Amino acid sequence: MPPHTHPQWLTYPSLPLAVYREIAAHLQQVEGVQVEVLPQDAPSFDYGQSQVKGLSLGYSESLTDAQRQQVQSILDYYAKIHGNYEIKF
C-alpha cells in the first residue's frame, strides 16, 4: 500500500456510533483512504454525548483529484443530514 499522509481527525458533534461506522464504511470504499473510528475518551459517561470521539482519516499521497472529490462528496452528504463537521490536523 502507498504511504499515507498524516491523519486528519474529523468529528460531527453528537453523531451516533452507527452513523460514524456508516461514514467510515463509505470512505473506506475510496481507494487510498484509511479510516479509523476513534473511541470516546471523555472522563465520564454522558448520554447526550456520542460514543465516538471522531474519525481518523489518512490519505495516500497518490490520491487523485477524483478520489479527493469523492471523499468530499461523502463528507458533504453526511453534513447535510447531520450538521457540519470539524476537521483537525
What would a concise description of this structure say?
With 89 residues, the protein is an alpha+beta fold. It contains 2 helices and 4 strands.
Description:
The chain is an alpha+beta fold. The protein has two helices and four strands; from the N terminus they run βαββαβ. The chain has helices at residues 17-28, 65-82, and strands spanning 8-11, 33-39, 52-59, 86-88. Strands 2-3-1-4 form a four-stranded antiparallel β-sheet, with helices on one face. The longest helix is centred in the last third of the chain and has 18 residues, at 65-82. The chain is globular, with a radius of gyration of 13 Å. The model has no long low-confidence stretch (mean pLDDT 85).
